[in-house]
TrEMBL record:
<dbReference type="Pfam" id="PF00563">
    <property type="entry name" value="EAL"/>
</dbReference>
<feature type="domain" description="PAC">
    <location>
        <begin position="80"/>
        <end position="134"/>
    </location>
</feature>
<dbReference type="InterPro" id="IPR000160">
    <property type="entry name" value="GGDEF_dom"/>
</dbReference>
<dbReference type="InterPro" id="IPR001633">
    <property type="entry name" value="EAL_dom"/>
</dbReference>
<dbReference type="InterPro" id="IPR029787">
    <property type="entry name" value="Nucleotide_cyclase"/>
</dbReference>
<dbReference type="InterPro" id="IPR000014">
    <property type="entry name" value="PAS"/>
</dbReference>
<dbReference type="InterPro" id="IPR052155">
    <property type="entry name" value="Biofilm_reg_signaling"/>
</dbReference>
<dbReference type="InterPro" id="IPR001610">
    <property type="entry name" value="PAC"/>
</dbReference>
<feature type="domain" description="PAS">
    <location>
        <begin position="24"/>
        <end position="65"/>
    </location>
</feature>
<dbReference type="InterPro" id="IPR035965">
    <property type="entry name" value="PAS-like_dom_sf"/>
</dbReference>
<feature type="domain" description="EAL">
    <location>
        <begin position="308"/>
        <end position="563"/>
    </location>
</feature>
<dbReference type="InterPro" id="IPR035919">
    <property type="entry name" value="EAL_sf"/>
</dbReference>
<dbReference type="Pfam" id="PF13426">
    <property type="entry name" value="PAS_9"/>
</dbReference>
<protein>
    <submittedName>
        <fullName>Cyclic di-GMP phosphodiesterase Gmr</fullName>
        <ecNumber>3.1.4.52</ecNumber>
    </submittedName>
</protein>
<dbReference type="Pfam" id="PF00990">
    <property type="entry name" value="GGDEF"/>
</dbReference>
<dbReference type="InterPro" id="IPR043128">
    <property type="entry name" value="Rev_trsase/Diguanyl_cyclase"/>
</dbReference>
<keyword id="KW-0378">Hydrolase</keyword>
Length: 572
């Protein structure tokens, strides 16, 4: 008897402990609440009288999908214990989370007669987890979903394998770095917040749009349930227009626009990262092309990107593999036909891909900071070749050597020293060397350009402005920089059959003469162009009419044979 009483005492103590610590309820097989302890009443906000006899569904919050409860019922209906976390709704409408264990209760015949539900309040833990999730998946500055969050959303859409169309817009803001650097990071941050607000308004209009900040000035927008892939372009154009409206921030009126790349479900990727990469490629193309419209990703862009990556990889050791070669295009006196000099032009002969044109690798070399060694190679090799010609050809050797200089070379502190050393090494008189720079290059950083060009002038070398007339500050260029030669852009010569272009060429030649500058016309391709330039008083020129760029050996033969058209040969 004492043992039975002891067991009953222990059982009561256990029940009291459970009742005190946990949230306890008993339901019948249909889910009608039969018993509820004080903790249940306290957390739910219902009285015991309100709970008992009610269906447990009064606690449902709507947070969980129907499948969640179907799985739960299936398991406990088989007589098995179920455990999981449930979000319930209290009487006042607030949500609370409970770690729940539901245990089937059996009658003497072994049939389920009801269920015992034991719950523990985990609302605080869930709030903490939600806060951590918020930190991990929200951008701290704008409050938009961040990269991790949008990647999850993209992957969910990809995995859905629905017939509905969707698209991803990748946008980058033009001039953001300039705004950030000139007006300060506070204004830059305010601009990003304003951009996020405008995107957020677009998101509010439909649940099928989700915007996110990738970082920096890059944002993406996921468009779901599109009627057709083309709809993505319409949305992108509308966003581009909205985002281009001036921003009033911190007393400043700020103008910015977005370059937008689009990838649609027509080019479905296996992973969110790949889809994001494709949209980024399209954005990069839009930014590089400087077009005021979105660019849609296609296979051509993918092939272009792969080719670029291939060029990047192969460029790293191009000099050590001895794959770079210089070609030389003659510069001719347009009156006498005399050979006056050459322009050194770089070519890349790849053992597998053949000749890779300069316009495909020079800009990449610039971005990779390989243009300095490549530029130094050109200068060194061209001067070495001129030294050889001066020894072998004597008075027939080119009198002048023209070498192109990139922006990064011009802004590099060693350029003057490099030029000085190369001239000394190959015994080249400084006045024989012409360094060619474009307007855009010298205008990029006027202070550095003026200083460097003046130092080069002190060495005795000549400074040529290449592609003159195509920049935005041609006349300013003539006033501010120590220039010796203007090279008329080939586009002027190409359009010389138009009266307006002819007048412009004539005006530039007269202006150069007044300033004591030499003029070289580029891109002369026929006798008519040559005759016009002669009539306008242009003294020097180059182009395929005289000769295409030649390797050194072929140029030597042409020099010895005078094997290119002259004014007399052209009948003018």
């Amino acid at each position: 008897m004492a043992e039975i009483q002891s067991e009953q005492t222990c059982l009561k103590a256990f029940r009291d402990a459970v009742d005190e610590a946990g949230i306890v309820a008993i339901t019948d097989v249909k889910g009608t609440i039969l018993e509820a302890n004080d903790n249940f009443c306290k957390i739910s906000g219902y009285s015991r009288e309100e709970l008992i006899g009610s269906d447990h569904r009064i606690l449902r919050s709507g947070y969980h999908p129907p499948e969640f409860f179907r799985d739960m019922y299936r398991q406990i209906g088989r007589g098995k214990t179920w455990r999981g976390e449930i979000c319930n709704r209290a009487k006042d409408g607030n949500f609370y989370w409970v770690d729940t264990t539901i245990v089937p209760m059996f009658n003497e015949q072994g049939k389920i007669k009801g269920y015992l539900a034991l719950r523990i309040d985990i609302s605080e833990q869930r709030r903490l987890l939600d806060s951590l999730h918020q930190l991990a998946h929200r951008d701290a500055l704008t409050g938009l979903p961040n990269r991790a969050a949008i990647l999850q959303s993209i992957q969910t859409v990809i995995n859905r394998k629905s017939t509905n169309h969707f698209a991803l817009l990748f946008m980058d803001f033009d001039r953001f770095k300039l705004i950030n650097d000139s007006l300060g990071h506070d204004v830059g941050d305010k601009l990003l917040e304003a951009v996020a607000d405008r995107l957020r308004k677009a998101v509010r209009s439909t649940d099928s749009i989700q915007a996110a900040r990738m970082g920096g000035d890059e944002f993406v927008v996921l468009l779901d349930n599109l009627s057709a892939p083309e709809d993505a372009v319409c949305v992108a154009e509308r966003l581009q227009k909205d985002l281009a409206i001036p921003y009033q921030l911190g007393g400043y009126t700020i103008y910015s626009s977005a370059s937008i790349g689009i990838v649609t479900s027509e080019h479905l990727a296996d992973t969110a990262s790949e889809m994001l990469s494709n949209a980024d490629l399209a954005m990069y193309e839009a930014k590089a092309a400087k077009v005021d419209r979105p660019i849609v990703f296609d296979q051509v862009l993918r092939d272009k990107a792969q080719k670029r990556l291939y060029i990047e990889n192969e460029l790293r050791d191009v000099i050590s593999r001895d794959e770079l070669t210089l070609f030389y295009q003659p510069i001719v006196d347009l009156e006498s036909g005399d050979f006056r000099g050459v322009e050194a032009l770089i070519r890349w002969f790849h053992p597998e891909s053949g000749m890779i044109p300069p316009d495909e690798f020079i800009s990449i070399a610039e971005e990779m900071d390989l243009i300095i060694p490549v530029g130094n190679f050109v200068l060194n090799e061209a001067c070495r070749q001129l030294n050889r010609w001066r020894k072998t050809l004597g008075p027939l050797a080119p009198a002048n050597l023209h070498v192109n200089v990139s922006r990064k070379q011009l802004e590099h502190p060693t350029l003057v020293t490099v030029v000085k050393n190369v001239l000394r090494k190959y015994e080249i008189p400084p006045e024989c060397l012409h360094l060619e720079v474009t307007e855009s290059i010298i205008m990029h950083d006027r202070e550095i350009s003026v200083s460097t060009l003046n130092e080069l002038k002190k060495l005795g070398v000549n400074i040529d402005v290449d592609d003159f007339g195509t920049g935005y500050s041609s006349l300013s260029c003539l006033c501010d920089f120590p220039i010796d030669v203007l090279k008329l852009d080939r586009e002027f010569v190409k359009k010389s059959d138009r009266d307006r272009e002819v007048m412009l060429i004539e005006a530039l030649i007269i202006l150069a003469e007044k300033l004591g500058l030499e003029v070289i016309a580029e891109g002369i391709e026929n006798a008519e162009q040559l005759a016009l330039l002669q009539a306008l008083g242009c003294r020097l020129g180059q182009g395929y009419f005289f000769s295409k760029p030649l390797i050194a050996a072929d140029l030597e033969q042409a020099i010895l044979k005078e094997d290119w058209p002259s004014p007399s040969m052209a009948g003018v």
